[in-house]
Amino acid sequence: MNAPAQSDGYGQTTLCESGEFAGWRYWEGDPFESRAGPFYMRREADGSRVAAFRTQPHHMNGGGAIHGGCLMTFADFALFAIAHDELAGDHAVTINLAGDFLGPAGTGALMEARGGGKTIFVRGLVTADGNPALSFTGIIRRIRRS
Predict the structure, then answer these.
(1) Can you give the residue range of the structural domain that contains 74?
(2) Would 82 be classed as within a structural domain?
(3) How far apart are CA 125 and CA 10, in angstroms?
(4) Residue 80: phi, psi to the nearest 5?
(5) Alpha helix (H) ranges present in 3-52?
(6) Residues 6+ positions from 140 with CB-CB distance below 8 Å
(7) Is residue 23 part of a domain?
(8) Is 38 part of a structural domain of the chain?
(9) What is the count of structural domains for the chain?
């Protein structure tokens, strides 16, 4: 059972209350991410944010490794999770996302993305069970609410 959605900076998030990602939050209302994920985020003790998901069979390509499109979709989610506080409740869109594929990940891998900086240019690293899988950079543009 999940708690009701609440405002948490950019958009509405819901607290996951059970399972592996209990205590993590996810965005509601994005049909593509809901189908591609599920993807989660949380604030770390140092104030930074981390995004994560556990790979499942529907995340794999025909060769049995995580699909590159899934990694890029997760990296796009991670852009907004990492820049969550900087967005301060404003909507934003991705205007650039680039990634370098570094290694494979199989079914059941814990995928995590962390990044740095307090700007809306984000650089991050996705790992699979601690091993580098994708480095990514992206720029998102804030759309101020009127």
Answers:
(1) 45-143
(2) yes
(3) 22
(4) -75, -35
(5) 31-36
(6) 79, 80, 83, 87, 92, 93, 94, 95, 120, 122
(7) no
(8) no
(9) 1
Round to whole Å and give the CA distance between 33 and 69. Answer: 12
* CATH code, domain carrying 138: 3.10.129.10
144: three-class secondary structure by DSSP: coil
Residue 47: C-alpha distances to residues 12, 101, 141 (Å): 19, 28, 22
- Whether 126 is covered by a domain: the verdict is yes
Query: Which tokens is 56 given?
Result: 């499942």
pLDDT digits (tens, 9 = 90+) for 19-35: 999 999 998 878 888 88
DSSP-derived 3-state class of residue 46? coil
* Residue for token pair 């101020």: 144
Tokens encoding 122: 């984000």
11/139: higher pLDDT: 139
Q: Which residues pair with 142 in a beta bridge?
A: 92
β-strands 110-116, 91-101 pairing: unpaired
67-105 pLDDT, tens digit per residue, is 999 999 999 999 889 888 878 777 888 878 888 888 999
pTM, whole model, 2 decimals? 0.77
